[in-house]
Amino acid sequence: MGSLEDDAWTGTAYVQGRASARLLASDLELSFWGGVEPQTSEIIDRHHPLSGQHLQNTVLAIPGGRGSCTGSGVMLELLLNGKAPEAIIFERREDILTLGVMIAEEVFSQSIPVVVLDKEGFRHLIRMNGQMIYVDDGYVSTHPPSKHRKGSVIDTESGLILETTPALEGIKLSTLDQELLRGDYGEASRVAIRIVLRMAHLLGATRLMDVTQVHVDGCVYTGPATLALAQRLRDWGGKVRILTTLNSLSVDQKRWRALGVDTTFGEAADALGKAYTDMGARPTFTCAPYQLESAPKLGEQIAWAESNAVVYANSVLGARTMKYPDFLDISIALTGRAPKGGPHLGVNRLASVCVKVMGLEDTTGLDDSFPPLLGYYVGTLSTSRIPVIAGLEKLGLSTDDLKAFGAAFATISSAPMFHIVGVTPEATTLEAVVAPDFTYIEVKTGDLSTCWDKLNSAPRTQPIDLISLGNPHFSLFEIRKLANLCEGRQKITSVSVLYPN
After folding, report:
1. What is the fold of 350-454?
2. Which of 68, 111, 141, 307 is catalytic?
3. Looking at per-residue confidence, does 472 or 240 come out higher?
4. C-alpha span between 331 and 336 (Å, rounded)
5. What are the residue boundaries of the Phosphomevalonate dehydratase small subunit-like domain, all occurrences included (predicted)?
6. Secondary-structure class of domain 3-141 per CATH
7. Where in the chain are the domains?
8. Parallel/antiparallel/unpaired status of strands 132-136 and 139-141
9. Distance CA 50, CA 285 (A)
10. pTM of whole model > 0.85?
11. Is 31 tagged catalytic?
């Protein structure tokens, strides 16, 4: 996907353009949602080596994104408020942040170059952290190009043409796809299918496919850009073509004023939810759509955003979805069409890392903190790879345990799913879900102590001010369990308790 020539590299330009700025580089993935402040561009993930740095006026080089699907929303905000990096360079194909740039280009005519280098070139590049870097389509150099170069728009892995506007060679279009592209179903659907096709190019898909339902995460208010996008699609006449559910909003629509939410923020977040329901989405407002009656079945092809929901759907329900970025979700809802690739295909659901958990013969002392702690730790080990976990067969993990495992896993890993041997539906045996070439890792319970200390870094003597429950939303069983624990007890006045519902 790239070639090395002294201090110059030729990669694949998934979004074309020219830029130059100081290189800001790291060999660790970065989640833009919760990791970057969209109004200032500061990296606020205090566990990341670039913490405290600003993206504005830099060329950002990271292996890829990670964590929440809402990273595309943060990317869009940065672009529209002038705080985005001048260009982004990845080590591998990356869809969440790239999609944010594509949306800005398609809908608002603003963009930055997005380039993918091969591993060797990327590793060489990040050693030049702090130096001036020049980007010209797919050409990256420490020196200004002597002339405008035509970057590689051919992905050597897939053979697809990758131009800023979708060159349709390489993707087989259905009759419906062609009608949508012509604008037969309106401007919103026309723009939406262009976005879907551009992402299909990036993902290496050669055709689109029908899906039965969409879960939209783009209804989370990250700033004015998210509202502007939803209202523009609605005003263009956008209507969803398939069952579409909505993620949690940023405010309680009925009580945000009583809760003291800032008026400007509250009105904008409320209007964002309304824009999506105006387009026909159901006002479900949950980050746990797998708890709805419309939850998909084993093998069902769906298009979900919201990282914990994606991981649960793929892993626990056995449904099939990519980890769709915010805004690609509504694009699929408006067209009913999704790229046929990624975890939609069985071959892309195999695990490439096997994590064997040792020493669980005696489970005495394990409590509700164990599944999310292990999920987070497995996420740090797997990074972008799908893991299969062995050694948990005797724990009797509940669906709530799996929800907690998956939610923590999804905060740190960019993988769309996991398998647990003897627990999740596809992992009837290790051999059923493991790829031919896989990495084997043994984990002892003692290995989790460092992870625990990292996640619980506050001094033990520091008083607790706030307890937040239901992230993701509680199941009925968890609500009942909480009620039983609280029965006959009184909360102390110095501690606030927040329960999203």
Report:
1. Aconitase; Domain 2 (3.40.1060)
2. 68
3. 240
4. 8
5. 30-115
6. alpha beta
7. 3-141, 175-344, 350-454, 462-498
8. antiparallel
9. 33
10. yes
11. no
